[in-house]
Amino acid sequence: MEGSAGTLLSLLLRLLLTSSPGAPDHSPGLVARITDKGLEYVAKEGLVGLQRKLHGIALPDFTGDFRISHLGRVRYEFHSLDISSCELLGSALTPLPGQGLSLAISDSSIGVHGKWKVRKSFVKLDGSFDVWVKDITTSVNLLLGSEPSGRPTVTVSSCSSHISDVEVDVSGDLGWLLNLFHSQIESRFQEVLESKICEKIQNSVTSDLQPYLQTLPVTTEMDSLASIDYSLMQAPRVTDQVLDVMFKGEIFNHNHRSPVPFGAPVMSLPEECNRMVYFAISDYVFNTASLVYQEAGYLNFSITDDMIPPESPIRLTTKSFRPFIPRLAKLYPNMNLELQGAVVPAPFLNFSPGNLSLAPQMEIEAFVVLPSSIREPVFRLGLATNVSAVLTFNTTKITGFLKPGKVHMELKESKVGVFNVEVLEALLNVHILNTLYPKVNDKLAKGLPLPLLKHIRLYDLVLQIHKDFLFLGANVQYTKV
Ligand SMILES: *[C@@H]1O[C@H](CO)[C@@H](O)[C@H](O)[C@H]1NC(C)=O
Ligand SMILES: *[C@@H]1O[C@H](CO)[C@@H](O)[C@H](O)[C@H]1NC(C)=O
Ligand SMILES: *[C@@H]1O[C@H](CO)[C@@H](O)[C@H](O)[C@H]1NC(C)=O
Ligand SMILES: *[C@@H]1O[C@H](CO)[C@@H](O)[C@H](O)[C@H]1NC(C)=O
Description:
CATH architecture of the largest domain: Super Roll
Main location: secreted
Keywords: Antibiotic, Antimicrobial, Disulfide bond, Glycoprotein, Immunity, Innate immunity, Lipid transport, Secreted, Signal, Transport
Distance between the termini: 55 Å
Organism: Ceratotherium simum simum
CATH topology of the largest domain: Bactericidal permeability-increasing protein, domain 2
Largest sheet: 6 strands, antiparallel
Structural class: alpha+beta
Strand order of the largest sheet: 9-10-1-12-24-23
CATH class of the largest domain: Alpha Beta
Bound molecules: 2-acetamido-2-deoxy-beta-D-glucopyranose
Order of helices and strands: HEHEEEEEHEEEEEEHEHEEEEEEEEHEEE
Helix content: 25-40%
Subcellular location: Secreted
Pfam families: LBP_BPI_CETP (PF01273), LBP_BPI_CETP_C (PF02886)
Number of domains: 2
CATH superfamily of the largest domain: Bactericidal permeability-increasing protein, domain 2
Shape: rod-shaped
Number of strands: 24
Oligomer: single chain
């Protein structure tokens, strides 16, 4: 059977994965993949912030002595240095396989405005100057990791900045001052600026990028019952082309979390790269949700006569059942019936290429409500149906709804003889359509939030349904105003 071959394969893969040190002991429920297009966007957006940051570089004063012909030694001071402009034009963020990302900033220039002062005994001269620092190239390696809490981390593992051209413009025609700058200050200035750029970048990664990455919702409360665990299972994985982030993707009852009796499937992601980001969302995410709601009794229901619409030709009374269950009416004359139903086991979402479906099974037990209010079981029914699921997407979440299918019912056990279940099937069908489906669809409409950083919106969504997982591609927009 295809199923057992699949199980064997996933078992083998799991064994292989667990035997390699450091690897988590089961597969992620959700994988977010950032493509080179995504990295390009991040580099572009990041540059804006970095440019602002470099504007804030504080440069030290440069002082010293200098020999000028005729005058002899003079004391000089270049002070009040301010960054007057900062332009970063080119940036590229590329994968560093096995480590993280490499950020290269090129085509950058910085303008500095400052004042100079020269003193020789009673003689004092001063003025202002501008420096244009051009052709700055900076290369930064970023190391990606994850904290034990499951949050992503980023650190700078190396940074180097190189300035290849400095131009000075001094007010007035003071050739000796230019010489002073070139011989005494230029290289120091260059050195200071190079190290300040890396210092600012380091600082920006620690105080802006890392906190931003940690806006990733590690656990998100979905409602009063369920939360979703989006903790990282390991450090983001970087290959030649992509950056993969492996999330647990498990929905749990936040009032009491219990271990999940099944694992996530091993997903083999298609090699798509038209979008900035892809999410592979395995059936594990949906099935852990199903388990939580089913175990909490969310899918349990009971039907009593007062819930039956007045126009219904059949009522939940033994009298009304007389024509098709005569023994029921005879044994329990003029009594009410109550049906208690439960979806057992928790229904799992079936993924097949292009289709999503469920085959929930229900157990329904019928009770006679005795005059003492004691409920006496009289028969049990089994109900099966095929339901198709339709998923839709929103800017930050997956929503969906169920399309009911035909129900099939059978009598499992009876203390009142065998009877035709058709009438009950119709009654139950109406009830399920009017209560259970809207209840579940209401939950599905609230949606499953995707693991997104703050201020991120998705657009240009594409969806594929693969065996065991949904594959959602999107472009990303950073929407901070
Ligand atoms: C739901 O119904 C099933 C079957 O009747 C029962 O075993 C289970 O305890 C119920 N769950 C809750 C939370 O009431
Ligand atoms: C998807 O399900 C529908 C309805 O059940 C069916 O008609 C269709 O053939 C299925 N498509 C695939 C690709 O299996
Ligand atoms: C559900 O679908 C399966 C497979 O197509 C079929 O064997 C089964 O009879 C269907 N059940 C119902 C209740 O329609
Ligand atoms: C997305 O879903 C949220 C919550 O259900 C809703 O408020 C919002 O209008 C939806 N946005 C779009 C674009 O459909």
